[in-house]
Specification:
This protein has two domains: 239 residues, inorganic pyrophosphatase (n-terminal core) (Alpha-Beta Complex); 116 residues, Diaminopimelate Epimerase, Chain A, domain 1. By secondary structure, it is α/β, with parallel strands linked by helices. The model has no long low-confidence stretch (mean pLDDT 93). Strand 12 and strand 13 form a beta hairpin.
Length: 371
C-alpha cells in the first residue's frame, strides 16, 4: 500500500495541529460498527490532544437529510469544525457548500466518491484519493481514522477498535497480517470465520443495537466510547444479546419466506420482525453461500409505507453497490448504494415491483459484474 497524495495527508495533519481548545468540534458518524468505532477513535484522539468534541451524533450513512440537518444545527450553535465519518455526505455538494459558510469540514469515508467536495474549507479523504494498493472499500473508516490520527497521537491502546471495524465491514482479506497481530496482542482466539471471534462478537452487539432503533444505536455508540477495553465493551453492550434469539429463529425458518431465482443464483427474502434484522440476516445467510446473491426485504419501522433492502454477494461477482444505486434511480425519496459485496436501499413500498424488475435485469448485465 503506497501513499500517492502525501499533500492531502499533510494538510489533514496540519489542520488538526492548528486546532485549539477554543474550537468547537462536531463529530457525525454512521451508526454501524465501522462508523461507531471510527467515531470512538476520533473522539479519543481529539481528547488526547486536549481538544473538545461538543457534538457526537449518529446518522444512517445514506440519510438524504443528513447534511441539511447538520446545516441547521451549525447555524444554531458555535460549532466551527465538523467531522463526517463513514457517511455519504459527498452526495450533497450544494449543502456542503452551505455548511462551509459556518464551519470547516473534514470528511473521512471509504465508500465510492459521489462528488469531489474538496475545497479550501473541506478536507475530503477517501482511500482512492490518497493511496494505492488496496481496494477502497476494504480500507474501512475505523482503520482510516486510526492511521490518520496516529500521525498526531498514540492510539495503540485502542487499536482493538480497528479489529471490530475491519471484521464488521468484511475487509479482513486486506488486513490478514494486521488482524493476526491484534489476535496475538489481545490473546484472542482466531476462529475459522473472523465474525465468530471476540472482535466479531462486539461487532454483532453493535449491529444488534441498530436493529432495535436508531436511538438505541446512538446509545450503543456511547457505550463503546465509554469502553477502554474489549471486555468493557462486551459488558457494556451485553443487553443486546436478546436480539440473537430473534435472528436465529428467523434463520431456522428462512425458506418459508424466500423467493428463489435459480437461473441467476439469487434469492429475495421477505422478513417481518420488530427489529431491523434484514442486514444481519443477509450477512449470515450469504456467508455460507458466497456465490449466491441475496436481497433481504423488510418494512421500515419508522415508516411502514417504506421498504429497507439489504443486498449481499460475498464472492463480489456483481457490484451490489452499483445495482442498489441504479435500482432506485427516479424513485421519489429513495436512496441506494454501498460496496460490491454489501449494499442497501430504502424506498416507498409502491416502488417495490419496479425495484424487483430492475434488480432481476441488472444481475445478469455485464456492466454490473465486478472486476
Amino acid at each position: 500500500m503506497n501513499i500517492i497524495n502525501p499533500r492531502l495527508i499533510e494538510r489533514f495533519v496540519d489542520f488538526i495541529k492548528a486546532l485549539s481548545p477554543e474550537d468547537n468540534i462536531a463529530i457525525y458518524h454512521d451508526t454501524d460498527p465501522d462508523g461507531i468505532c471510527a467515531a470512538t477513535l476520533m473522539f479519543n484522539a481529539l481528547e488526547k490532544l486536549g481538544l473538545k468534541t461538543a457534538i457526537l451524533e449518529g446518522f444512517d450513512h445514506g440519510d438524504p437529510d443528513m447534511v441539511e440537518d447538520v446545516l441547521m444545527k451549525v447555524k444554531e450553535s458555535d460549532i466551527n469544525v465538523i467531522v463526517f465519518l463513514d457517511l455519504l455526505a459527498d452526495r450533497h455538494p450544494d449543502k456542503i457548500k452551505e455548511v462551509e459558510k459556518h464551519a470547516n469540514i473534514i470528511l473521512i469515508d471509504h465508500h465510492p466518491i459521489e462528488n469531489d467536495v474538496a475545497s479550501e474549507k473541506t478536507i475530503f479523504i477517501k482511500p482512492q484519493i490518497f493511496v494505492e494498493g488496496i481496494i477502497p472499500s476494504r480500507y474501512c473508516t475505523t482503520k482510516l481514522v486510526y492511521d490518520l490520527m496516529s500521525r498526531l497521537v498514540d492510539l495503540s491502546d485502542l487499536d482493538w477498535l480497528c479489529g471490530i471495524g475491519i471484521i464488521a465491514d468484511f475487509a479482513f482479506d486486506a488486513w490478514e497480517d494486521y488482524l493476526d497481530g491484534l489476535y496475538q496482542k489481545y490473546n484472542v482466539d482466531k476462529k475459522k470465520m473472523h465474525i465468530d471471534s471476540k472482535f466479531g462478537a462486539i461487532a454483532k452487539l453493535i449491529v444488534a443495537a441498530n436493529t432495535i432503533s436508531f436511538e438505541e444505536a446512538e446509545k450503543a455508540a456511547l457505550k463503546v466510547i465509554e469502553s477502554r477495553t474489549m471486555d468493557e465493551a462486551i459488558e457494556n453492550l451485553k443487553g443486546y444479546n436478546k436480539i440473537e434469539d430473534e435472528i436465529q429463529k428467523f434463520l431456522d425458518n428462512s425458506k418459508e419466506c424466500t423467493e428463489e431465482f435459480p437461473d441467476k443464483n439469487m434469492a429475495i427474502i421477505h422478513i417481518k420482525s420488530q427489529y431491523y434484522i434484514n442486514s444481519i440476516i443477509a450477512t449470515r445467510i450469504s456467508l455460507n453461500l458466497p456465490e449466491k446473491i441475496f436481497f433481504v426485504v423488510q418494512a421500515d419501522k419508522s415508516d411502514p409505507e417504506r421498504l429497507a433492502v439489504s443486498g449481499r454477494c460475498q464472492s463480489k461477482r456483481v457490484h451490489l453497490g452499483k445495482i442498489m444505486h441504479d435500482a432506485v434511480k427516479g424513485f421519489e425519496e429513495a436512496s441506494g448504494g454501498g460496496h460490491a459485496p454489501a449494499a442497501g436501499a430504502n424506498f416507498k413500498k409502491e416502488d417495490y415491483k419496479e425495484f424487483k424488475k430492475r434488480i432481476l435485469e441488472m444481475v445478469g448485465k455485464e456492466e454490473y459484474k465486478n472486476g
